[in-house]
Specification:
It is a single chain. This protein is of the alpha+beta class. It has helices at residues 9-12, 22-25, 40-51, 69-88, 97-100, 133-138; strands spanning 150-159, 166-174, 179-183, 208-211, 214-216, 222-226, 231-241, 244-258, 261-270, 275-285, 288-290. Strands 1, 2, 3, 4, 5, 6, 7, 8, 9, 10 and 11 form an eleven-stranded antiparallel beta sheet that branches. The radius of gyration is 22 Å and the shape is globular.
């Protein structure tokens, strides 16, 4: 139909590592024993996002090292979270790192006067006629039907907040039976979800409209749409981890007409552990190119 959703991630990501318990695939695992290996990075990202820090807050360059005291503190906090949830919520993940920290290394125990109850009277909600999901989807740029041959080239940059940003060239080649992403710059494979917008496949119907400019898709992603220009500006999804829910976002910018349709020339994948930005220099489709 119009544009692609996150399900196309399967075409871009490499095969996941074995889902053995993390203590069998990594070293010096103590509190997280029994955790599937595939969950380790999302769990780490959730904790760093909750505290507003990078992985370097707890980890030295030797990842297995216990050199930094914050690492042992994190183990104690994980044990405390598990204990609170086990004793009070039947083991469900209700209390999380973010329940207390909310982006700060040290939780703030002093409430703000601005949060007093008298200062939060519910504002009257005006009756707004929301557009239907179909009408919003119809405003998105159409992609060519059938088999697509498209070559996208540009620069990919990764940044983790610990080291200087690093960048290198990338090439995305799409043919009728193959999708090939090449870059010498290593980055989380999940970041390639941002490139799925260049692939022509049907889009599932939105499950409901969540706002004037937002659609909740059938797979749980929420898309933010610029109605005036008929483009997607942001995709948001939430990953459930054993410690809490980890948000992940994709931003699209610099939309241009290429090969008869609008395509973004900037795609940015955002998660607590990395920011990966794809800047497109050239799109070749059906023998034509746009710079």
């Amino acid at each position: 139909m119009r544009i692609i959703i996150a399900a196309m991630l399967l075409l871009f990501t490499s095969a996941q590592s074995s889902d053995l318990p993390v203590e069998q695939t990594k070293k010096n695992i103590k509190t997280l024993q029994g955790l599937p290996t595939s969950q380790l990075i999302p769990v780490m990202a959730f904790m760093s996002n909750s505290l507003g820090v990078t992985c370097g807050h707890c980890h030295a360059k030797d990842w297995e090292s216990d050199e930094k005291p914050a690492k042992e503190t994190a183990r104690k906090m994980i044990a405390m979270e598990h204990d609170i949830n086990a004793r009070n919520f039947d083991g469900k993940t209700v209390v999380t790192c973010n329940s207390c920290h909310q982006g700060h290394i040290r939780p703030n125990g002093v409430p703000s006067v601005a949060n007093a109850g008298w200062n939060h009277a519910a504002a009257p909600q005006p009756a707004v006629a929301l557009p239907t999901a179909d009408s919003l989807l119809a405003r998105l740029p159409a992609t060519p039907g059938g088999a697509v041959t498209r070559v996208v080239t540009g620069t990919v940059e990764r940044y983790n907040g610990r080291d200087d940003p690093k960048s290198g060239p990338f090439t995305l080649t799409i043919t009728a039976d193959k999708i090939d992403y090449k870059s010498e710059l290593a980055h989380p494979p999940d970041a390639n979800r941002a490139l799925a917008v260049f692939v022509s496949v049907p889009t599932p119907k939105a499950s409901r409209v969540t706002g004037v400019d937002k659609l909740e898709m059938a797979n749980g992603e929420v898309w933010t749409i610029d109605e005036a220009h008929g483009v997607v500006t942001r995709r948001h999804r939430e990953l459930v981890t054993p410690l809490g829910i980890l948000p992940e976002e994709i931003e699209y910018d610099d939309w241009r007409t290429s090969g008869g349709t609008k395509l973004p020339f900037v795609a940015r994948w955002l998660r607590a552990d990395y920011r990966v930005t794809f800047t497109v220099h050239d799109i070749t489709s059906g023998g034509s190119s746009r710079h």
